[in-house]
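[09:14] KT: can someone run the structure on this one? pasting the chain below
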Amino acid sequence: MFEATKWGMVEFVVELLKASQPLYYLNDDGRNVFMTAIQYRQENIFNLLYGIHEEMKAHILNDTDNNWNNMLHVAGEIAPHSQLARVSSAALQMQRELQWFKEVERIVPEWCKESKNSKGETPYEIFSNSHEKLVKDGGKWMRDTASSFSVVGTLIITIMFAAAFTLPGGNAQDGFPNFLRKRSFMIFIISDAISFFSASTAVLMFLGILTSRFAQEDFLESLPRKLIIGLSTLFISIAAMMVSFSAALLIILQDRWWAIIPIIMMASIPVTIFVWLQFPLLVEIIISTYATGRLFKRNMKPWL
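[09:31] RB: done, structure tokens below
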């Protein structure tokens, strides 16, 4: 059963538990099936705990292993490499580890939170010590990512700021733009402003990441939230920049569609490639940060 738990064979574990109910069985380390599930980060088996009646659940949550480790101690240990590798970057791996620790912390009795094992370590001390390298790696990944996107954002700010004062078609003698009354000119101005302010917001978010203290708790929501806002506004800025560019072509070339369409298509290629390469990262961060319900199913129906 414990080998099946280690590899996440949830159907086999469920059938075994229903057949003989060996919930109180312990492995060689003195850990029950749910402590083993936490150790190997098998969320599908861990979620079975939510479907057990309260009396049995209370007994399981108060269990300790041979070294006096309770469930929160086990959650404080770093996950096996094979489980960490399921998440793409060190920062998101650290976030996933914090999500596990916080979820177990939420359900264990109060005494477990300050309890010490045979080595005199609390769960928080184990978590801090075992994740020290992951925090450093996650901080480096965050800094490198924020730095790279800051360069893109700064470039867009520079271009959009200059475009606002070098209007297509120039100005009339009275100082007003020659094409002020054209719809395409208004599209150009509005999209230019959207791109400029979105890029400015993105750069500020990335600067917020670069100046962060990179504490362990920051990886849970603070840093991912800043990265989500920064990437989202950067993509909006890029899209608005393309609209602005297209509107400028319409103003300058007017109805010469044979030239406008090919130019817009060629200009869209590098932007499309950038979005295609980086958009999956934004989706992954959003899911990892705000879709924890997919990981821990607290509303599981009673099954045992």
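[09:33] KT: thanks! Residues 144 and 210 are 9 Å apart (CA to CA).
[09:34] RB: yep, looked fine to me
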